[in-house]
Amino acid sequence: MSKAWQQELAGIALAGVFLGLAGAGIGHYTALIIAALLLYLAWHFVQLTRLTLWLRSPKRHARPYSVGLWRAIIELVEELRVRGKKRKRKLGRMLSGFRESTSALPDATVVLDDRGGVEWWNSVAGRVLGLERKRDKGLGISELISDPVFQTYLACGDYSRPLQMPAPVDDSVNLEVRIVPYGKGKRLLQARDITRLSQLETVRRDFVANVSHEMRTPLTVVHGYLESMNDSGDQALSPWSYVLGQMQQQTVRMQRIVEDLLLLSRLESHNNIEEQEVVDMSALMSVLKEGAEGLSAQNHEVAVTVEPGLNLYGSVTELESAFSNLVFNAVRYTPTGGRVTLNWECGDEGEPCFSVTDNGIGIAPEHIPRLTERFYRVDVGRSRQSGGTGLGLAIVKHVLTRHQGRLQVKSEPGKGSTFSCSFPDSRACWESLENEKKPLTSRSL
Ligand code: ADP
């Protein structure tokens, strides 16, 4: 028990003894006790009122002076108050330090509440996203940034990849936007200016496209002359026939690389597929089978399975190019006598899927994540020998991305590989249903 409480109880006991003696003297016990209790209550009431006034407005009312238990209580309250003020000052310092550091960040940062309203943003965000403190605080970010691509990104909830979009205030500025969820439903939006990077990327793309384009004509000319020389039957050229044959082979290889590079830069430079239609998959599968048999020259068994009535909505030229790359790879990397199976089916969740399975040389697991990189080959010599450009799977990846598809590779060295391309179910077109449906050109994905 604290000293104040001991003193209070001792005072009460002393008053009791005094009242007992006085009561015995004058013979009015009850009246005396009631009077004493009323006085005691009045004292506490006055103390309580002074304490309340002081707590409510400490600036207008001085700290109450008191004795005993009340003094101890007032001192305790004062101590708690001082501690609270210190903590508040410390938090304030931390908060302003945090704000200063985020303001100094070169990237735009916006704090979004659980309903997507903007709570706070740094000065870069104000400049780049066009936010104004008085006007926009508390408004939804979807109302403030109206770009439809951003709206879809915000609504989809999958923020594992950043989004690239033009800055709302200036189309020439390119932003990379990232959203990081944290706390209870809160999100942190970060936007980085990647204009320079995008410009460099465009320069690189244009350079590759221009070089490839410029090389096309000279290569065609050289190849044409070499062909004429080879076919001329001129005896004077016979000592050179081996050399001419090799030169012709190499020009064909270079022509293929140039064509693949041009196709890749076309795929990269237009984000949207220009011409989409319902691709007749059973017809395309027949074309792919014929191509595989032509390349194999009867050295492989080529089998095809097709889901009847299932077609795919997309660009026929791009899809044919991607699928034939996979089919030709299967033939090229499967030794004579092997089997190649082309499969077109509907997956368990309604997603259309094209796959090619072979029982060829297979691929070691460490190479699989890098296969879609340009010019990445497991065995450079073998790829060249079989007429590969090293660009086939990069083309496949680009075409699939443009069709919101996914490439999956399963392979075991010595046993074979399966390359599967799955597409969203919105790209599936069932023949019987499609006949009753709206015009294909207005199909929304
Ligand atoms: P390339 O023109 O060299 O075939 P790709 O981009 O088409 O280039 O393929 C990249 C590499 O992936 C190939 O060099 C090869 O090593 C490997 N690869 C692709 N498909 C197969 C397959 N079906 N079986 C084994 N290896 C494959």
UniProtKB/TrEMBL annotation:
Biological process (GO), any one: cellular response to phosphate starvation
EC number(s) recorded for this UniProt protein: 2.7.13.3
GO-annotated cellular components: plasma membrane
Cellular location(s): Cell membrane
Pfam entry (one): PhoR
Residues spanning the membrane: 34-55
Top-level taxon of the source organism: Bacteria
Residue stretches in coiled coil: none
Catalytic activity: ATP + protein L-histidine = ADP + protein N-phospho-L-histidine
Domain Histidine kinase, residue spans: 210-427
PROSITE patterns documented for this protein: HIS_KIN
UniProt keywords, alphabetically: ATP-binding, Cell membrane, Kinase, Membrane, Nucleotide-binding, Phosphate transport, Phosphoprotein, Transferase, Transmembrane, Transmembrane helix, Transport, Two-component regulatory system
Record GO terms (molecular function): ATP binding; phosphoprotein phosphatase activity; phosphorelay sensor kinase activity
Keyword Nucleotidyltransferase appears in the UniProt entry: no
InterPro entries cross-referenced by the UniProt entry: BphY/WalK/GraS-like, HATPase_C_sf, HATPase_dom, His_kinase_dom, HisK_dim/P_dom, HisK_dim/P_sf, PAS, PAS-like_dom_sf
Function: Member of the two-component regulatory system PhoR/PhoB involved in the phosphate regulon genes expression. PhoR may function as a membrane-associated protein kinase that phosphorylates PhoB in response to environmental signals.
Protein name: Phosphate regulon sensor protein PhoR
